[in-house]
Design a protein that fits this description.
224 residues, 18% strand, binds pyridoxal-5'-phosphate, 40% helix, 8-stranded parallel β-sheet, alpha/beta, 9 helices, single chain
């Protein structure tokens, strides 16, 4: 059986390889370990191996782990759908939120971000394949939302995030990611393209991803 250590090493080597293949440096792509449905001891083990940024989808589950791991200096990223009545805990306990998809949520996070903390880093989620089942805004709606969010003083608008529909063909994966890369060119103040998961990481890096969100390839299959 593969160990966490060997999987983590392999993913890092894969990121480096994909980056270099596209004339990018390995450190231009950040690795976010997606730890949803993984117990706290798995995060602790990954942290001991040098992984300090973790992505979580479910607020209560994340809060439980944050309590169990309070002794570690983890950078917490929220990547799941946001209920607007749950924004306070996001504003108080995370450094990043990738899944902003409406102004109401952004305003609440801005108002609730504690004064003593730095700005909350945020990405706008784009529903890149216009799938009714997925959250996120259309590319057409991006300029208006980006303009409003950029004005919220307690948020720092870092970039765009997308979860494309499942697609096996690497060229088509890359084409879809390319739309996000293209869209970000209009916003020189943004520096983050949160795209690429276990199954499409290489294509995402080829298209310009700066942050890949990897769960399964690090921790193995999730028990549901
Ligand atoms: C679960 C999840 C991931 C990681 O997916 P894997 O296929 O396990 O790598 C990345 N991003 C989001 C938003 C997720 O929900």
């Amino acid at each position: 059986m593969k160990t966490l250590e060997s999987r983590l090493k392999q993913i890092k080597a894969q990121i480096k390889h994909a980056a270099e293949e596209h004339e990018r440096s390995a450190d231009s792509v950040q690795l976010l370990a997606v730890s949803k449905k993984q117990p706290a001891d798995q995060l602790r083990a990954a942290y001991a191996l040098g992984q300090s940024a973790f992505g979580e989808n479910y607020l209560q589950e994340a809060r439980d782990k944050q309590e169990q791991l309070a002794d570690l200096d983890i950078e917490w990223h929220f990547i799941g759908p946001i209920q607007s009545n749950k924004t306070r805990e996001l504003a108080e306990h995370f450094q990043w939120v990738h899944s902003i998809d409406r102004l109401k949520v952004a305003k609440r996070l801005n108002d609730q971000r504690p004064e003593q903390l730095p700005q909350l880093n945020v990405c706008l989620q784009i529903n890149i394949d216009n799938e009714p089942s997925k959250s996120g805004i259309s590319l057409e709606a991006l300029p208006a939302l980006a303009e409003e969010v950029a004005q919220l003083p307690r948020l720092r608008l870092r970039g765009l995030m997308a979860i494309p529909k499942a697609e096996e063909n690497p060229l088509r994966q890359r084409e879809t990611f390319g739309k996000l890369t293209q869209a970000m060119r209009n916003y020189p103040e943004m520096d983050t393209l949160s795209m690429g998961m276990s199954a499409d990481m290489n294509a995402a890096i080829a298209a310009g991803s700066t942050l890949v969100r990897i769960g399964t390839a690090i921790f193995g299959k999730r028990s549901v």
